Amino acid sequence: MTQAPAALEVVNIHKQYGDVEVLKGISLTAQDGDVISIIGSSGSGKSTFLRCLNLLEHPSKGEIELRGESLALSADGKGGLRAVERRQLERMRARIGFVFQSFNLWPHKTILDNITLGQRQVLGRSKDEAIARAETLLKKVGLYEKRHAYPNQLSGGQQQRIAIARTLAMDPEVMLFDEPTSALDPELVNEVLTVMRDLADEGRTMLIVTHEMRFARDVSSQVMFLHQGRVEEYGPPDQVFGNPSSARCREFLSSHL
Ligand code: ADP
Ligand code: MG
User: Fold this and answer.
1) Domains of the chain: which residue ranges?
2) Angle, alpha carbons 90-210-31 (nearest 5°)
3) Which of 46, 74, 135, 175 has the fewest CB atoms within 10 Å, i.e. the most exposed one?
4) Which residues sit with Cβ closer than 5 angstroms to ligand 2, an ion?
């Protein structure tokens, strides 16, 4: 029996800054519907790893495969790997959605424009199509009435929900979240986690860097604990949170729960 290719397959990612290796060979397989939380101390390489997956950072080594299609990479002569084809990279970036800690909305565009721009430029959707999709998603995240507002008229929690809607508008196969609630006032964290929990319940494939341990334990199918650029512990949440084999992981958890 041949197995269907994984939603995302990442093999042996290394990343070097100068002569410091911050990722020392990280591999991961996400099957459809997997929610993989990535936890670890500040500086352990979580953001760098996520950013390598859609080439916001250039890995120095490794392979990235999306549903069996491998991203063609070649050496850039400076120790990094670059996409061979701009077009393939653009398509991959639409298929692997990224949600940033700092939302990264376009400040001078309305919410509706923020959500329609990528759909039109990258997916080639018509204006009407893009607006219809944006409006559906704005209703989903509970912000339809804000469609003509500008980002700075919204709270951080609302901006992050918009950023999630913008990512969803591209119909990504995998979504990456880098500490999506870390920039928010505590009282705004839950509205974002609720949206993410709904996405998990819908069966979306997600990689989530987070310090929200209870959330990670609840929604994850797998949890990855990174330490100094290596996977130090990996497994289902009950194992990683309940009975980790790594002493460093235990230590980390005891200071974060
Ligand atoms: P985390 O997200 O887990 O806090 P990062 O991925 O941001 O960790 O960083 C991992 C390591 O890489 C840290 O030691 C950090 O200082 C280093 N690093 C990150 N970005 C750069 C950069 N642009 N240049 C040099 N070192 C960097
Ligand atoms: Mg980080």
Assistant:
1) 8-256
2) 55
3) 74
4) 46-47
Alpha-carbon torsion 190, 194, 195, 196, what sign? positive
pLDDT for 241: 96
Mean pLDDT confidence for 36-48: 98
The contacts of residue 107 (CB under 8 Å, 6+ apart) are 150, 151, 152
Q: Architecture of 8-256 per CATH? A: 3-Layer(aba) Sandwich (3.40)
pLDDT at residue 3, as a whole number: 76
Cβ-based burial of 149 (10 A; exposed 0-12, middle 13-18, buried ≥19): middle
Q: Which of 14, 15, 17 to mutate to test the pocket of ligand 1 (most atoms within 8 A of CB)?
A: 17
For ligand 1, whether the C-beta of 22 sits within 6 Å is yes
pLDDT digits (tens, 9 = 90+) for 214-250: 999 999 999 999 999 999 999 999 999 999 999 999 9
Q: In sequence order, what DSSP letters do the residues of 179-207 get, joined into one string?
A: STTTTS-HHHHHHHHHHHHHHHHTT-EEE
Output the pTM of the full model. 0.96
